[in-house]
C-alpha cells in the first residue's frame, strides 16, 4: 500500500448515506454491493490474459489463497469510485487456472467515511483455531490493515463461504501499536510450532515485525527483521513463504519435486520498497533464508531484486500451496511513480493490471546463489493453434510475423533458445521487435552473447505516454550458464504489458507500455553468432481469457463487455487529438 499521507490527500469525495460503526459496511451509492462491477475488456490497451479490474483503480494484490475446491482467490486494493488511488476496498476475482478470471462482488468495504481497507492476506482456518467456524474446515480469515487518519491497525474478517463474503470481527483491531505507519500483514501457518505467523511492516522504521498467534486474534511480537537490503523511504507488503530449492545446479532442470532438495526449510522473505527504488519509485527485493517459527535468518548478507524493469511491486504468494511445490505469486504490474497517470485511465476507464501468475523456486548456483526463479504458469492451454504461428531453427534467424488478423487478442507467447554457445569469445546478438504498423511505434529487446552478456528492453519508441519517470530502457547482465552453454528467452506481450523471463526465470522483467497504434507485427533477428550455435524461435498466439473468441459482444459472469454508465472515463485528465495523455 502507499503511504497514508499520500492516500488521504487523494481520497475521493464520497457521500456517506449513513454513519456506521467500524464493523459494518459503509455503503456509498455509486459502489455496488453483492454484484460484480461490470467491465469493458475490449479496449486497445486492455490486457487479454492478465488480470485487470473491471474499471477504476487497482493496486496491490491481497488475500491470495487457494480454496478447498482448488479455486484461486485474488483480492486487490481497489478504489471503485475513481481512476486514482483512494477509498480503498478489497476487490475480488476467482480463477481455476490463474488466467481465466471471474470478477466477484467487492469482498471487504470500509466501515466508515475516511477508512481504507489496506493490504493484507487471507488463510484457511482448517482447524477452527479462530473459533469462527464451528462446523466447517473451509473457513477463511482475512487479515488486513485498517487505515484512518489517526492510525493503521491490523484487523480480521471471516468468511463461511470460501471467501466470497466476509464478516468483520467484533473485537477488531487485533493488533494496534498507535502508529500511522504499520501495515500490510501477511499470515502463514507454521506447523512445527502450531502457530500462525504474521509478517507486517513498520513502514518508516525499515522494520518487518514477525508476530505469532494461536488463533489469529491474539498476536505476540516474536522478532524484528530490521534495516536489511535497500531501504528506499518505506518498507511495505512483506511476504514470508516456504519455498523449494533446486538441487540440480543446472538451471535447465524442470520444476519437478525430484529436482528439489528435501528438508532444506528454505524460506523467502520479500519486502517491497516505495518510494526510493534504484530505478525510481517502487520495486520488490527478497531475502532467501531459514525460519524457525520466530526468527527469519537470511542465508547471506546480499540484497536481491526480483525484477530488472520498473513495473513489479507488492507481489504476494498464494496461501495453501504445499511447501514442497513451486510457490505461485502475482504482483502489481505498475510503479507508483506513474500508475495514477497512465493513459488507460482517461482512455479506457481503468488503471493497472497484475503480473502473470508465476511459479517460484530458488536456485543456488555459483554465479547465482539463492536466486528466485520466476516462470509463468503454463500458457499452452491458451495457444490459438496446435503448432506455433512461427517457428525457426536457423542460426541466422530473420523472422517477420504479421499477427494482425491471426491473433485477435494481440497477445503472444514467444521464446528464443540458443545452444552450443562457445565458452570463450562468444559473439553476436539476438533481438525481438514488436511493431505497430499504423504508427511505426516499436517495443524492442535483445541479448548480446559476448562481453558482459547484457539483455536489454527499450520501450522508448512507444509513444502513448510520456512522463519523466517512465524510464525508457532496462538491462540486466545475464551470464551464460557454463553447464548448458545455452541462452533462453521466454516472453509474453499483451497489448500494454511485456514480461520476459531469461534462462528459466533466473532473470525477469515486467514492463508496461502504451502504444497509440496496435502492435501487430513481430520481428526476431539474430546476427553474428559463432559457427555451430543452434537457435530455435517459437511464437504462439494466445486466446483472450476475457473476450470470447471472435465475439466482442460476449458476456461472461462478471465480465460485462458493454461500457456501463459509471465508466468514469475522462477523470478530469485531458487527452490530445491523438488520444495522447496530457500529463
Ligand atoms: C470451533 O470453535 C468454537 C469456539 O471455540 C467452538 O465452539 C466449536 O465447537 C469449534 N468447532 C469445532 C468443530 O471444533
Ligand atoms: C453446528 O452443528 C451443530 C450440530 O449439527 C448444530 O447444532 C449447530 O447449529 C451448527 N452450528 C452452526 C453455526 O451451523
Ligand atoms: C498515539 O500517538 C499519538 C501521536 O504520537 C499521541 O499523540 C497519542 O497520545 C498516542 N496515543 C496513545 C493512546 O498512546
Ligand atoms: C491442523 O491440525 C493438524 C492436526 O493437528 C495439524 O497437523 C495442522 O498443522 C493444522 N493446520 C492448521 C492450518 O491449523
Ligand atoms: C521492533 O520494531 C519496532 C518498530 O521499530 C519497535 O517499536 C519495537 O520496539 C521492536 N521490537 C523489538 C523487540 O526490538
Ligand atoms: C541436472 O539437470 C540436467 C538437465 O535436466 C541434467 O542433464 C543433469 O544430468 C542434472 N545433473 C544432476 C547432477 O542431476
Ligand atoms: C529461533 O531462533 C532464535 C535465534 O536463534 C532463537 O532465539 C529462538 O529460540 C528460536 N525459536 C524457536 C521456536 O526455535
Ligand atoms: C548454496 O550454495 C552455496 C555455494 O555453493 C553453498 O555453500 C550452500 O551450502 C548452498 N546452500 C544450500 C542450502 O544448499
Ligand atoms: C579468443 O580470442 C582471442 C583473441 O582473438 C584468441 O587469442 C583466442 O585464441 C580465442 N579463444 C578461443 C577459444 O577461440
Ligand atoms: C540488435 O540490436 C542492437 C542494438 O540496437 C544492434 O546493435 C544489433 O545489431 C541488433 N542485432 C540484430 C540481429 O538485429
Ligand atoms: C550466419 O551467416 C553468416 C553469413 O552468411 C555465416 O558466415 C555464419 O556462419 C552464419 N552463422 C551461423 C551460426 O550459422
Ligand atoms: C456472441 O455472444 C452473445 C452472448 O453470448 C450471443 O448471443 C451471440 O449469439 C454471439 N454471437 C456470435 C456471432 O457468436
Describe, in short, the structure shown:
This protein is mainly β and 583 residues long. The protein has helices at 4-10, 344-348, and strands spanning 56-66, 72-79, 89-95, 101-108, 116-124, 140-147, 152-159, 167-168, 182-190, 195-202, 207-213, 220-226, 235-242, 266-273, 283-291, 296-298, 304-305, 313-317, 327-332, 350-351, 358-363, 371-376, 390-392, 398-402, 411-419, 429-435, 442-448, 454-461, 473-477, 487-494, 497-502, 507-512, 521-527, 534-541. It has 2 domains: 22-373, Glycosyl hydrolase domain, family 43 (Tachylectin-2, Chain A, 5 Propeller), CATH 2.115.10.20; 384-542, Jelly Rolls (Sandwich), CATH 2.60.120.560.
Your description of this structure?
This is Glycoside hydrolase family 32 protein. The chain is an all-beta fold and 583 residues long. Helix content is 2%, strand content 39%. The longest helix has 7 residues, at 4-10. Mean pLDDT is 89; it is low at 4-23 and 549-583. It binds 2-acetamido-2-deoxy-beta-D-glucopyranose (12 copies). One 2-acetamido-2-deoxy-beta-D-glucopyranose is lined by residues 264, 364, 366, 369. Residues 202, 205, 207, 209, 224 line the site of one 2-acetamido-2-deoxy-beta-D-glucopyranose.
